[in-house]
Write a structure and sequence with these properties.
Elements (H helix, E strand, L loop, with lengths): L1 H10 L3 E5 L1 H5 L12 H4 L5 H6 L1 H18 L6 H11 L3 E6 L5 H5 L6 E3 L2 E8 L5 E3 H9 L14 E5 L8 H13 L2 E5 L10 H8 L3 E5 L12 E3 L3 H15 L4
Parallel strand pairs: 1-2, 1-7, 2-3, 7-8, 8-9
Antiparallel strand pairs: 4-5, 4-6
Helix pairs in contact: 1-11, 6-11, 9-10
């Protein structure tokens, strides 16, 4: 399967990479849904609750602080770096990610090649004036005692620029993701159970439009039976081996 995936990459010109929590756990970031994940410890706060209840906003920020503490130390891993290498080789059409940690951008993937379908924790947005603040600034304020930080410019409610329960996905991000799914000749789904919709439809759309499908995930997915390549191994170790085989065929100067 390692050789098969390397061969698919060599044959492809427009690769779409779809990533889920599995690639981030290898960088030390908790999977929300897994045993011991944040959703096992906390009940998610909906956008409606966030807007209407001071207590729910406190609860929300308590949850997000757990993730922000992970972001302080998280670094891109071999899986993220392999995707950067696909771009360097001129084969990467784009990355659609369910992750909100910003590690693809930190690894070096171009901003215009990343669709963060659930938003990003690395930007904090004011829900009133729409100003964007760096997460480190607001993180420091919460750590110093502001349990529900407000915008200094207008007094509006601050929130990580992520899609909360009850909140719609950004239609522009979703539309671009679907365009890439229709255009790609290979989609590599990495570290995702492929069950959270509508994001999980992206690999299926690509496959239905004639793209090859590779899945790298430790657990089963609904698309396993349709995969051209199915690998149940760690993402970093898999991509390290795959890209070595690819480099052997495409020597870098």
């Amino acid at each position: 399967m390692i050789k098969d995936l390397a061969e698919l990459i060599l044959q492809s010109k427009k690769i779409l990479v779809f990533t889920g929590a599995g690639i981030s756990t290898e960088s030390g970031i908790s999977d929300y849904r897994s045993k011991g994940g944040l959703w096992k410890k906390f009940q998610p706060v909906t956008i409606q609750e966030f807007l209407s209840s001071e207590e729910k906003r406190k609860e929300y920020w308590l949850i997000k602080m757990s993730l922000l503490e992970c972001l302080e130390h998280a670094k891109p891993n071999a899986g993220h770096q392999a995707i950067v290498e696909l771009e360097i080789l001129g084969k990467l059409l784009g990355v659609v990610t369910q992750n909100i940690d910003g590690l693809h951008l930190m690894a070096g993937t171009s901003r215009d090649k990343i669709m963060e379908i659930h938003g990003t924790m690395r930007d904090i947005i004011c829900l009133s004036c729409q100003v964007i603040l760096p997460w480190e600034e607001v993180f420091a304020r919460v750590k110093s005692g502001e349990d529900t930080p407000d915008c200094h410019a207008c007094g509006g409610k601050l929130k990580p620029n992520t899609v909360s329960f009850g909140q719609n996905l950004d239609p522009d991000v979703l539309d671009q993701s679907v365009r890439w799914a229709n255009e790609c000749d290979l989609v590599i789904a990495i570290g995702s159970t492929l069950v959270v919709e509508p994001a999980a439809s992206i690999p299926r759309i690509a496959k239905q439009n004639g793209a090859r499908l590779a899945i790298i995930n430790l657990s089963e997915t609904p698309l396993d039976a349709f995969a051209d390549v199915l690998i149940s191994m760690g993402i970093g170790e898999t991509f390290t081996q795959v890209m070595k085989l690819v480099r052997d065929q495409i020597p870098t100067s």
